[in-house]
Amino acid sequence: MFHKRFYKPIFPEKYAGDPTNIIMRSSWETMFASWCDKNPSVIKWSSEETIVPYRCPTDGKIHRYFVDFKITVKEGKTFLVEVKPEKQTLPPVYPGKRTQRYLTESLIFMKNQAKWDAAKNYCKDRGWEFKIITEKELGLTPK
What we know:
globular, alpha+beta, 2 helices
């Protein structure tokens, strides 16, 4: 379900960008933003402020990937973080025939892989790390 809303930080001084214009596109992103905001180990964070160019394999064109989050922690490490359902991080399961759903999921998976490969290279060039956060890391899976 689409969940676009503004996030108002408790500690606006930690936000690297305009703290009055933080847009969350899912409840999971909102949960992660709140964690970044409240976690004393996170010294700076931003949402959709880092743009990584990538070539999309579905059309061969260069596009701009707005990474969900960039965080810097006290230890001096910087991370680019994407928040996604685990299902979207795995190749779609072939249902035995080429359904429209399977084709759509395949194209989304290919596009995401291209984005994430570009983000990994972007991070490598800067000494950062790229992470994908799913419902598991957010503590949303049944125990």
